[in-house]
UniProtKB/TrEMBL annotation:
Entry keyword Nucleus: no
EC identifiers of the protein: 2.6.1.11
Native species: Desulfuromusa kysingii
PROSITE patterns noted in UniProt: AA_TRANSFER_CLASS_3
Keywords: Amino-acid biosynthesis, Aminotransferase, Arginine biosynthesis, Cytoplasm, Pyridoxal phosphate, Pyruvate, Transferase
Statement: the UniProt record of this protein carries the keyword Transmembrane: no
Protein name: Acetylornithine aminotransferase
Record family assignment: Belongs to the class-III pyridoxal-phosphate-dependent aminotransferase family. ArgD subfamily.
Assembly behavior: Homodimer.
Residues reported to bind pyridoxal 5'-phosphate: G106, A107, F139, D224, E225, I226, Q227, T282
Cofactor: how and how many bound: Binds 1 pyridoxal phosphate per subunit.
Pathway where it operates: Amino-acid biosynthesis; L-arginine biosynthesis; N(2)-acetyl-L-ornithine from L-glutamate: step 4/4
Lineage of producing organism: Bacteria, Pseudomonadati, Thermodesulfobacteriota, Desulfuromonadia, Desulfuromonadales
Gene giving rise to this polypeptide: argD
Length: 397
């Protein structure tokens, strides 16, 4: 028996079976390559679902973690933490935001955003103005409040009663957004590009219309940039493509390029609603993870990572479009930068399985959309290798 099978059997016996895992036992990673416990190498175009944006084990992130781990691992948020302060400064300097709440995941960042908009609205307008409009096919996380915000039956099913006060509208439909706003509405929350929902890019002008509606009705606009933020779309934040700024933004996945961290960023006017005692997190913003976050942000901002994302995003999109010209079962290629989707006329699960056998990691979302979210440091040669494997699979269908 190889080493992998032993681990797989043990995992199936005792690890919560929430993922329907593929038969890969991860051992190490470098750049765009993941190696399993038996030494097989995989070209990683999933990147831990858009987490390993600087590639696996970026040396500057690893060094920051090692150095910080030897100095101070954890310290209560009752005290000031320099690494946390530095990361907050970097995020505010490069975004619309003034103040950052740190936590440990995307769902927690969204929880903080949802609490903030409700608290601000209650403090300012009274307690019966609490409704939050979100989009159908959105994804905001797996906690009770964030599945309530997520406009997908598949994710909510079985967990009733959900948190009340959410209204869902078709993504990209300005008229529907307008109609959904009522006297109880306090905020609109959306992903600038839907990730899990199938790499859905809204029509030009949609995010701007959402901003205008928020201004007109005194609503807060929350952008969930957990998947698309931090360079992935070819700009530091996806909202920059549309010349629209939110009031609140959530980040997580790529923020420390591997280690778990989340952040909720808000304008000062709204951020103060979360006053001492109204929200918190024991681990949130701890020295170890924020040191990694600072290192990751510096690499992202200083090492031309986003320039590479733009160039390689264009290249990958062109290569995927060539496949589309070749195969009639490819409906379209969509996305921006290095978050690209290939919609098929059938379910993509088998392609993902075959790709794994041939040393390529991709995944399929919303049933029929193959998702490509490689590290932002991916090279043209690696894209060529990916396309060759994918083309080989598609050819046999
Ligand atoms: C991944 C994701 C989340 C949830 O993040 P977790 O860290 O898994 O809790 C929320 N929103 C979006 C857009 C995501 O892609």
């Amino acid at each position: 028996m190889n080493k992998s099978q032993n681990w797989i059997d043990r995992g199936l016996a005792h690890v919560a079976n929430t993922y329907g895992r593929f038969p890969l036992v991860a051992a190490s990673g470098k750049g765009c390559w993941l190696t399993d416990i038996d030494g097989k190498r995989y070209l990683d175009f999933l990147a831990g679902v858009a987490v390993n944006s600087l590639g696996h084990c970026h040396p500057k992130v690893v060094a920051a973690l090692q150095e910080q781990a030897a100095k101070l691992l954890h310290c209560s948020n009752y005290y000031h933490i320099p690494q946390q302060i530095e990361l907050a400064e970097i995020l505010c300097e490069h975004s619309f935001g003034d103040r950052v709440f740190f936590c440990n995941s995307g769902a927690e960042a969204n929880e903080a955003a949802l609490k903030l908009v409700r608290k601000y609205s209650a403090d300012t307008y009274g307690t019966d103005r609490f409704e939050i409009i979100t989009a159908i096919d959105s994804f905001h996380g797996r906690t009770l409040a964030t599945i309530s915000a997520t406009g997908q039956d598949r994710i909510q099913s079985g967990f009733a009663p959900l948190i009340s006060g959410f209204k869902y509208v078709p993504f990209g439909d300005i008229a529907a957004l307008k109609t959904a706003i009522g006297p109880k509405t306090c905020a609109i929350m959306m992903e600038p590009i839907q990730g899990e929902g199938g790499i859905n890019v809204p029509p030009q002008g949609y995010l701007q219309a959402a901003r205008e509606l928020c201004d007109k009705h005194n609503l807060l606009l929350i952008f969930d940039e957990i998947q698309v933020g931090l360079g992935r779309t070819g700009k530091l934040f996806a909202y920059e493509h549309d010349n629209v700024e939110p009031d609140v933004m959530t980040l997580a996945k790529a923020l420390a390029a591997g280690p778990p961290i989340g952040a909720m960023i808000a304008r000062e006017k709204y951020a103060t609603a979360l006053s001492p005692g109204t929200h918190g997190s024991t681990f949130g913003g701890n020295p170890l993870l924020t040191a990694a976050g600072v290192a990751a942000m510096k690499v992202l901002l200083e090492d031309h990572i986003i320039d590479n994302c733009v160039a390689m995003g264009n290249y990958l999109k062109a290569q995927l479009e060539q496949l589309q010209n070749k195969y009639t079962f490819i409906k379209n290629i969509r996305g921006r930068g290095l978050i690209l989707g290939m919609e098929l006329t059938f379910e993509g699960a088998e392609i993902v399985k075959t790709a794994l056998q041939r040393g390529l990691l991709i995944n399929c979302t919303a049933g029929k959309v193959l998702r490509f979210v490689p590290p932002l440091i991916v090279t043209q040669d690696e894209i060529d290798q990916m396309i060759e494997i994918l083309d080989g699979i598609l050819k046999e269908l």
